[in-house]
Specification:
This protein is an alpha/beta fold. It has helices at about 20-30, 45-50, 60-65, 100-110, 130-150, 175-190, 200-210, 225-240, 265, 310, 315-330, 345-350, 360-375; strands at about 1-5, 30-35, 55-60, 70, 90-95, 115, 160, 165, 170-175, 190-195, 210-215, 245-250, 275, 295, 300-305, 330-335, 335, 350-355, 355.
Length: about 375
């Protein structure tokens, strides 16, 4: 098979979809790999690194994409000329079609088969291609490093000749992969960590990391979701009043991020404290967050970085590349591309095939939005 690695065009993106180590494995398996010149430079991989292990270097994206092959991308060819694509191409990347369908529609019109890594099913078999979890691991780690640099307070308990320095108090809202990673790293740095998630089963995961779980789930019988959310937000106020750092990491697939932190909650925080919102790409978990903009509200700093994984490009690229390599194995058989729609993992991730959108969840989203527009 012919496999293509293109240079990402999204501003600020430093990752690359495949690294020299993974490309070497793909070539050893009998594949032909073409890498666009400069694709890995920002992640720390030069063209020579790819050439040494047998990859071909193309001068531009059109030459790299060619007439056929599997195209490996981070951001689904966003900002790249799609003209060379045809029905003999398979595009793998992060398209987020349930949130923004425009790119998926454009790719479908080329006739290419498209699989979105955002739609990976939550199953044991799909874990080897779960890019979302891989990137969330990096994001959770990076969030704590960013906070540790910006906070005016040390994380660990220190007993010194200058007196005892108490540990920082950290609250993490959302116990997905990013949230749990943030808790783990904060604990390793010596902070006192408390975590919360709306899912009861997640509280045990929080405690397994050595953090304390904030249990505000039980309400009165017949309580509506808005009433529950308001009760939880008010219940969080005393916790926020003691926090030095709050990390929010709650997302809903294909939907706007829920508002977990109100202005009142921010105003309850101590002067000099910090809030890092990891869900800003879909609106954010804090009512005051602004994407990639530092907000100061009553001496509380609010950060909302949109692409933390890119800041640790080398490690993130290696993880991304391995997940993509596993996906390539899943859609190939004896050197040929095989889109097996009976395979649950493939079918769940398949967005476009034979010139049209075929994903049930994406089509349902389109229908719902069309009905809203008509009404």
């Amino acid at each position: 098979m012919r496999i293509v690695v293109v240079q990402e065009k999204l501003e600020g993106e430093r990752r690359v979809a495949s690294t020299p180590e993974v490309v070497e494995d793909l070539i050893t398996q009998g594949n032909e790999v073409c890498v666009q010149s400069g694709a890995g430079t920002l992640a720390g991989f030069d063209d020579d690194d790819y050439q040494k292990i047998g990859a071909t270097i193309a001068s531009d994206s059109s030459s790299a994409i060619g007439d056929e092959g599997i195209v490996l991308t981070i951001n689904g060819l966003l900002g790249t000329d799609l003209t060379p694509l045809n029905s003999k191409h398979v595009v793998l990347g992060l398209l987020d079609p349930l949130w923004d369908p425009e790119l998926s529609n454009k790719l479908a019109e080329t006739g290419a088969t498209v699989l979105s890594l955002d739609l990976v099913p939550r199953s044991t078999r799909a874990q080897v291609v779960d890019v979302l979890s891989s990137m969330a691991t990096v994001v959770g780690f990076q969030a704590i490093l960013m906070a540790a640099e910006r906070m005016p307070k040390l994380f660990p308990l220190l007993i010194t000749a200058a007196g005892t320095i108490p540990p920082a108090r950290v609250i993490v809202l959302g116990a997905g992969v990013a949230g749990l990673q943030a808790m783990a790293i904060a604990r390793r740095l010596g902070a006192n960590v408390e975590g919360f998630d709306i899912r009861p089963e997640a509280l045990e995961q929080i405690r397994s990391l050595g953090a304390k779980s904030i249990d505000l789930l039980e309400g009165e019988e017949g309580e509506t979701p808005p009433q529950r959310d308001e009760r939880i937000q008010k219940g969080m106020l005393p916790y926020f009043a003691e926090a030095d750092l709050v990390i929010t990491a709650a997302q809903i697939p294909g939907a706007k991020s829920p508002i977990l932190v109100t202005q009142e909650m921010v105003e309850a925080m101590k002067p000099g404290s910090l809030l890092v919102d990891l869900s800003i790409q879909r609106g954010g978990n804090c009512a005051l967050s602004q994407m990639d903009t530092e907000v100061m509200h009553q001496r509380v700093t609010i950060l909302a970085p949109s692409n933390l994984a890119s800041d640790m490009a080398l490690s993130a690229s290696r993880m991304f590349a391995k997940n993509l390599s596993n996906l390539v194995q899943l859609i190939s058989e004896e050197g040929d591309i095989v889109i097996n729609r009976e395979d649950e993992v493939v079918e769940t991730m398949l967005v476009a095939h034979e010139g049209k959108i075929v994903n049930k969840a994406v089509l349902q989203k389109f229908d719902t939005e069309s009905q809203r527009a008509e009404s």
